[in-house]
């Protein structure tokens, strides 16, 4: 494509810096040279210091030996003092011969030289210059040091005393120039230089080879690109490529296919446009010829010919306008003029226009509609689309009709046109579509051209009008792609990444597949500590803490246990909130001995002090000492009965709650099922109170993520209000966003089309290594809101904020695929087991669908997880017994409650393990199973894909498949080849609004305390 005249063509790529091989070679040579210089310099300097220290030690040893010899010689010489001096001088000359070259010996007696041998510096005035340093060293005698004599001369000086008997003590001094001492290392300089030359040469060879190896696949891609530029697109981009080069090759292959499609589309478009243009031109030419040669002789014939020419020229003008509009689309200059359009009125007017123009006989087009159907779209474009649809239907259609899909829709027919509209304000959205005969069907397809806000979309096809509609589909608002959350439809066999256990697995599911991804993270608070202070200063529905508690007040500060969020956050907001709350209570006069920090673990395991430090911080933990504790639901002295609610629910809570003057609860509602009155009703209540709303019958009727319709949440709310009527509860709730990955950890993001190559080797690491990595994993969540005050208004504000973290889908699927990581709330700092993996899929992930599950009744659920057997011996002894003694006998929740749960509660070993050994409560595995009751009653079949042992999943009543693709094929063989598939990609956890929900049986509108 050439640039328009008068417009400078933008500069293309320019070569710079030579080839990749040259750059790699120069980089390696530069690194080698710099490394050799740095290492050589450091080594050479270190070697000099080392040699000096060695020489100092050697000279000191020689000095001590000479001093001993001087003492012996002086004592044995008979001629004193003159004879002894001469003998001593001769003796020193002999000793100098065995010392290193340039060494000298001087013997000082007082300030004078008694004897000397060696270079001039050891004698006369030069020798006396050493006296200050010699006297200093003599204080530590024997000793050695390096000393600068004069100028640039540096000496190694070693001093040792010698006893001359009656003559007193003399100092024996040995000197050696440092230049002589380090001369030995000079021989290594040549070796270093030779090593450097060899290293640079090796770097050049490696660089050339590495550059050729790196650039080889790029040259292949370059050849493919040149062949494409030459117009050859038939040859695919084949071969194996590493990492980022593979991404480039895949992009190039995708571009090749798109170019082929574009060329084919362009050829079809040109043929279609030529055909459309030829028809009116032929008519104009024929009737013009009839006027010229007199064939149209009568006035009536001439009038009809002129009318036909006028009509066909108008048609030709419309076609040219359509071509210009397409050109504006291609240049991205088109902007739709959105407004409200009455669809029925437009259809009526276009039908009348066809009749008036003579294109259709009166009565041939029949339009029926009831009421008004208002669209938000471009009026002119919509009118053109409808006109094209009607003209095509009149020209090519027979007496066609069809039944509109969907339930609760009225339907009427036009000739070749069907229009649907709702009967009662519900049902399916209004739509317009063509019904083309067989020969035309391959050439045209329905496209979305606009939507009715809150109702649905409008579809249409036509010839040039249909092409314009396809272009405008991406410019008009209301498309499903702009809904809250991300939903992608993938055809063929898409590559999806699922987190299964401790692995990231890449699967290819037989398409088409709908993938539901989480919405973007909520906007975080810019200054979370300041937001906490503001919420505590201006609480909702209650006075500030300073007015609720004062001197002498007994205050219990409770907080959520570390089971949520998952994975544990790198920054936990509970620490900041707890520090601020305790600080305000202390400032209000609450004494430390009246203040208790209680972890609301309920029937979860108790947590070690080290684990609690991640929530409260070491400073606060050290301040409260042994008043930082976990709740023990089985301690007979630790709980108090508060009677029953109006409906008869038993209320038993921690004594720290019942006997407090004020309870402050600090929570992090991770999903809509958490927080509110559930915090106290579950976290600080006994088994007898919790079992009322955790029983199997209650769970079967309780959509967890939809509190308005949940029987369990109604009971929790009733119990919470009963507690609040006896002790004031000040609640602080912090909502965190779903920003799970950040920085290099974004490689772990499963919401992608393929597994990044750096993670492929990690997936082959041993299982224990991956488990340790999973335990060390942290989420980079950010606080998105914090509120304090009365329980109900605080939780209402938190739930309102959580609404922005929902995704949305239009309808239920036949098959739901869930990748399950080994990150259960009940396996934090622990190990997964098969029951917890099933609970994560059917108890939690299945119920992420609000209103209705993502899968239809009787559908299939595919759980992708290894379901590894094994139970943590310390944390899950009750789960092990549940697996061995209960599941082989029954999977029915009611039978479990009646026949097996009481025996677990009576087992003192299991109870003591909960109380004193950090184990989960004996009833907890039953509750985890009851949590799945609603899913097991809803779906038809559950398939475990990728389980390491088939018998493990069969014990739980599931089917087994080697992988997710096989499981989906199994489901389609049972449900039909057109069965729809939806994949919810987790983590992070997020809820999904499923459109068309009519609620759940037993749902009460306006549930107490739930907005």
Q: Radius of gyration over alpha carbons?
A: 44 Å
Helix content: 40-55%
Shape: flat
Q: Which consecutive residue ranges, at least 5 long each, have pLDDT under 50?
A: 1-7, 398-486, 998-1002, 1004-1011
Strand content: 15-25%
Total beta strands: 32
Number of helices: 31
What kind of sheet is the major sheet?
Answer: 7 strands, mixed
Helix-and-strand structural type = alpha/beta
Task: Write down the overall mean pLDDT.
Answer: 79
Spatial separation of the terminal alpha carbons: 59 Å
For the biggest β-sheet, the strand order reads: 13-16-31-26-28-29-30
Brief synopsis:
With 1011 residues, this protein is an alpha/beta fold. The chain has 31 helices and 32 strands. Helix content is 43%, strand content 18%.
What are the main properties of this structure?
1011 residues, alpha/beta, flat, disordered N terminus, disordered C terminus
Characterise this structure:
With 1011 residues, the chain is of the alpha/beta class. The chain is 43% helix and 18% strand. The chain contains 31 helices and 32 strands. The strands form nine sheets. It has a seven-stranded mixed beta sheet with strand order 13-16-31-26-28-29-30. It has a six-stranded mixed beta sheet with strand order 19-18-17-22-23-24, with helices on both faces. It has a five-stranded antiparallel beta sheet with strand order 2-1-5-4-3, with helices on both faces. Strand 8 and strand 9 (417-422) form a beta hairpin. Helix 6 (186-229) runs parallel beside helix 7. It starts with 19 loop residues before the first helix and ends in a 17-residue tail after the last strand. The model is unreliable at 1-7, 398-486, 998-1002 and 1004-1011 (pLDDT under 50).
């Amino acid at each position: 494509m050439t640039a328009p005249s008068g417009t400078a063509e933008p500069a293309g790529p320019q070569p710079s810096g030579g080839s990749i091989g040259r750059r790699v070679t120069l980089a390696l040579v530069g690194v080698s040279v710099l490394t050799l210089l740095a290492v050589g310099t450091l080594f050479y300097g270190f070697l000099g210091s080392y040699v000096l220290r060695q020489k100092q030690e050697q000279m000191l040893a020689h000095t001590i030996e000479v001093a001993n010899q001087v003492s012996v010689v002086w004592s044995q010489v008979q001629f004193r003092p003159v004879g002894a001096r001469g003998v001593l001088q001769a003796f020193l000359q002999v000793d100098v011969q065995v010392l290193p070259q340039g060494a000298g010996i001087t013997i000082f007696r007082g300030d004078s030289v008694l004897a000397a041998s060696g270079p001039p510096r050891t004698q006369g005035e030069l020798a006396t210059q050493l006296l200050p340093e010699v006297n200093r060293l003599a204080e530590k005698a024997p000793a050695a040091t390096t000393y600068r004599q004069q100028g640039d001369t540096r000496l190694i000086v070693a001093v040792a005393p010698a006893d001359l008997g009656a003559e007193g003590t003399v100092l024996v001094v040995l000197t050696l120039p440092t230049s002589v001492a380090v001369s030995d290392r000079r021989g290594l300089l040549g070796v270093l230089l030779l090593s450097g030359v060899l290293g640079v040469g090796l770097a050049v060879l490696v660089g050339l080879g590495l550059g050729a190896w790196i650039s080889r696949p790029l040259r292949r891609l370059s050849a493919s690109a040149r062949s494409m530029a030459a117009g050859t697109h038939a040859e695919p981009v084949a071969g194996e490529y590493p990492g980022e080069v593979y991404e480039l090759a895949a992009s190039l292959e995708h571009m090749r296919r798109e170019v082929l499609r574009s060329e084919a589309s362009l050829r079809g478009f040109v043929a279609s446009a030529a055909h459309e243009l030829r028809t009116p031109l032929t008519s104009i030419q024929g009737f013009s010829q009839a006027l010229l040669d007199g064939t149209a002789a009568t006035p009536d014939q001439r009038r009809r010919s002129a009318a036909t020419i006028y009509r066909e020229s108008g048609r030709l003008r419309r076609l040219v306008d359509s071509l210009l509009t397409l050109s504006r689309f291609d240049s991205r200059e088109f902007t739709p003029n959105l407004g409200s359009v009455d669809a029925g009125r437009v259809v009526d007017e276009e039908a009348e226009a066809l009749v008036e123009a003579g294109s259709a006989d009166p009565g041939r087009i029949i339009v029926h509609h009831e009421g008004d159907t208002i669209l938000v779209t471009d009026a002119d474009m919509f009118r053109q689309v409808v006109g094209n649809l009607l003209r095509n239907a009149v020209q090519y259609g027979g007496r066609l009709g069809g039944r509109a899909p969907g339930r609760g829709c009225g339907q009427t027919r036009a000739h070749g046109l069907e229009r649907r509209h709702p009967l009662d304000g519900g049902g399916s959205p209004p739509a317009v579509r063509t019904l083309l005969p067989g020969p035309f069907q391959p050439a045209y397809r329905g496209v979305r051209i606009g939507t009715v806000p809150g109702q649905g979309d409008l579809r249409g096809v036509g010839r040039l009008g249909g092409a314009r509609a396809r272009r405008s589909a991406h410019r008009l608002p209301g498309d499903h792609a702009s809904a809250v959350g991300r939903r992608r439809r993938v055809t063929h066999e898409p590559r999806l990444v699922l987190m299964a256990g401790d692995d990231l697995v890449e699967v290819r599911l037989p398409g088409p597949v709908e993938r539901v991804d989480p919405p973007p993270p909520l906007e975080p608070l810019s200054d979370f500590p300041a937001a906490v202070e503001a919420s505590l200063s201006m609480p909702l529905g209650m006075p500030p803490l300073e007015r609720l508690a004062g001197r002498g007040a007994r205050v219990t500060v409770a907080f959520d246990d570390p089971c949520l969020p998952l994975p544990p956050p790198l920054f936990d907001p509970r620490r900041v909130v707890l520090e601020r709350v305790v600080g305000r209570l202390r400032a209000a006069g609450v004494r430390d001995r009246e203040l208790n920090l209680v972890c609301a673990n309920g029937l979860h395991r108790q947590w070690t002090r080290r684990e609690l430090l991640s929530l409260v911080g070491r400073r606060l933990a050290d301040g409260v000492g042994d008043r930082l504790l976990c709740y023990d639901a089985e301690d007979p002295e630790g709980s108090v009965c508060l009677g029953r609610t109006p409906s008869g629910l038993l209320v038993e809570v921690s004594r720290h709650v019942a006997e407090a003057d004020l309870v402050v609860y600090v929570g992090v509602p991770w999903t809509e099922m958490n927080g509110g009155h559930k915090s106290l009703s579950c976290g600080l209540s006994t088994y007898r109170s919790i079992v009322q709303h955790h029983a199997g019958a209650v769970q079967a009727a309780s959509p967890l993520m939809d509190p308005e319709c949940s029987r369990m949440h109604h009971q929790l709310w009733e119990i919470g209000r009963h507690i609040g009527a006896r002790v004031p509860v000040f609640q602080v709730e912090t909502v965190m966003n779903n920003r799970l990955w950040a920085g290099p950890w974004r490689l772990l993001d499963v919401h992608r089309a393929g597994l990044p190559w750096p993670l492929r080797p990690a997936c082959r690491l041993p299982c224990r290594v991956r488990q340790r990595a999973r335990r060390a994993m942290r989420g980079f969540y950010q606080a998105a809101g914090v509120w304090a005050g009365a329980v109900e208004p605080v939780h209402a504000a938190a739930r309102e904020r959580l609404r922005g973290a929902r995704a949305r889908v239009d309808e239920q699927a036949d098959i739901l695929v869930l990748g399950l990581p080994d990150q259960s709330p009940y396996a934090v700092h622990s190990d997964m087991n098969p029951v917890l993996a099933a609970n994560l899929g059917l108890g939690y992930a299945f119920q992420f669908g609000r209103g209705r599950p993502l899968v239809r009744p009787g559908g299939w659920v595919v759980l992708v997880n290894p379901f590894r057997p094994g139970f943590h011996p310390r944390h899950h002894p009750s789960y092990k017994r549940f697996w061995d003694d209960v599941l082989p006998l029954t999977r029915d929740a009611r039978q479990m409650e009646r026949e097996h749960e009481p025996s677990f509660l009576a087992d003192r070993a299991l109870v003591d393990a909960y109380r004193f050994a950090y184990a989960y409560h004996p009833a907890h595995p039953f509750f985890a199973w009851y949590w799945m009751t609603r899913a097991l009653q809803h779906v038809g079949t559950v398939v475990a894909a990728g389980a390491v042992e088939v018998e493990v999943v069969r014990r739980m009543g599931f089917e087994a498949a080697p992988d997710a693709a096989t499981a989906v094929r199994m489901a389609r063989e049972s449900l039909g080849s057109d069965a729809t598939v939806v994949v919810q990609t987790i983590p992070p956890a997020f809820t999904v609004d499923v459109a068309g929900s009519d609620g759940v049986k037993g749902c009460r509108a306006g549930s107490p305390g739930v907005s």
